[in-house]
Amino acid sequence: MKNPLEVHGVGPYREGQGKGMKERRVSSPANYRFEDRFLFVVVPLFMLDAALGFFGFHYHHLQPVGALAIVCAVLQSLPIVACIVVFGLYLGEEKDEFQKGILVQSMLWSTGATLAVTTFWGSMEKYSQAPRMDVALVQFVFCIVYIVALAVNGWRYR
Amino acid sequence: MKNRLKVLRAERDWSQADLAVKLEVSRQSVNAIETGKFDPSLPLAFKLARLFGTTIEEIFTDEA
User: Is B27 in the A-facing interface, judged by CB distances under 8 Å?
Assistant: First the structure.
């Protein structure tokens, strides 16, 4: 007889019923919380960051000054702070060592790639007069590489 | 590290997802253990042994 917790999908690990997923999926509560936090906290902050960046690029004559500039800078740095906090919470809550390892590996790849890209571009700016890269874009590089790394790891261990 | 997880699972007609639910880990973890890409921790190895009613040595074989 099946464990009633498993049947109703409320056990520590449950299949992805009611989530609109075609594929059978087993995930942990920590993973569901991680996905929810990422979707409802980190993604909106990145959208706000992109909107501020877009506004600053197109309306550069309306650049904020003084305290407003500091507020804008803090708002633009919030997404990466939220991202790291969400990763930290997940690592603290997740009991599955393999899944933790995947996250750490993906973060390591994205950190390494971000450092490599920014160092390379910094040298290009210094020695080859390459166009200046907006430092605020670094967090986007980190996130893009992280998403790619996560997808590659997901494919490797599918 | 080699293991007999796939055989033991097949004997009970369990899918990787079934085993994952019983072990409270993800299906990817079960797949990674089965294919030898990931060695489980001692608590997880004991959990596997208890689940299959055997010993850790019966499931895992050290290649060294």
Answer: yes
Residues from chain B that touch A154, judged by Cβ atoms under 8 A, are 28
Task: Write down the pLDDT at residue A75.
Answer: 87
| pLDDT exceeds 50 at position A7 | no
Tokens matching residue A146:
């992280």
The model carries a pTM of 0.75
Nearest to A26 among B17, B40, B44 (CB): B17
**pLDDT tens-digit profile of A67-94?**
888 888 888 889 889 999 999 999 999 9
